[in-house]
Amino acid sequence: MSAPLRVLIVDDEPLARQRLKDLLAEAPDMALVGECRNGNEAIAAIGSERPDLVLLDVQMPGQDGFGVLRALPPGHAPAVIFVTAHREFAVQAFEANALDYLLKPFDRERFRTSLARARDRRRAAPSSLDSELLARLESLTLPKPAAPYVTRLVAKVGWRMRFLQVEDIDYLTAEGNYVAVHVGKQSHLTRETMAALEEKLDPKQFLRAHRSLIVRLDRIEEVEPLPPGEYVFILRDGTRLTSGRSYRAQVQRALELPT
């Protein structure tokens, strides 16, 4: 028989950790190697214990679940099942290659289904030696492809997720912990930072013109310079947006304005 899957539990709620431990105890091929109360503990435990599977909460003090994954060295992340009471992070979880997204409260059968996915993942995975050799060969022989820019964004609409085509977006503005994506007369909130969205959007199509503004270049119909080094963009529909003074140079480059 193969060795049991080594499992790490990460959740800031003691009762939630206890329930996961009780359910894991019913699976003889699963071995609990530790439990963590926050993201920082999880990062340290993953480095020291090298678990095969992490049952990971999303919202925790300090580093959240996605922050934990970002902090791990490339190629060394274990399989992850997100366990959370927040359904709005499901799309982001699967974009992070999570095995499953367990929404609290869940029953015993649903938990067993998640563990079955972890078992299937292990059976389908190549040996660690093969993976390491393949990674080394690829790093020596293949250039790393540039990350493709996204063609759609995901916005939260009540309990649902709405997909917004990038080609339909007029501009984006920061709204507290969210970014408002403006499409015509409608706006939709997405839980991403302006910096993250700037990385995902093609700079040939979108311009970061303010710390709180990204605008689609082909929507700009007129530009009015302001004395302090700012610019007013007048979009096709008449919307007026103002750039930030510190973004003056990149606005001039993107729009080929005189310096």
Automatic annotation (TrEMBL):
Residues where 4-aspartylphosphate is found: 57
Gene3D superfamilies tied to this protein: 3.40.50.2300, LytTr DNA-binding domain (2.40.50.1020)
Keyword terms: DNA-binding, Phosphoprotein
Top-level taxon of origin: Bacteria
Domain Response regulatory: 6-119
PROSITE patterns noted in UniProt: HTH_LYTTR, RESPONSE_REGULATORY
HTH LytTR-type domain ranges (all copies): 153-257
Record keyword Manganese present: no
GO cellular component: cytosol; protein-DNA complex
Signal peptide start-end: none
A Pfam family this chain is assigned to: LytTR
Protein name: DNA-binding response regulator
Organism: Corallococcus sicarius
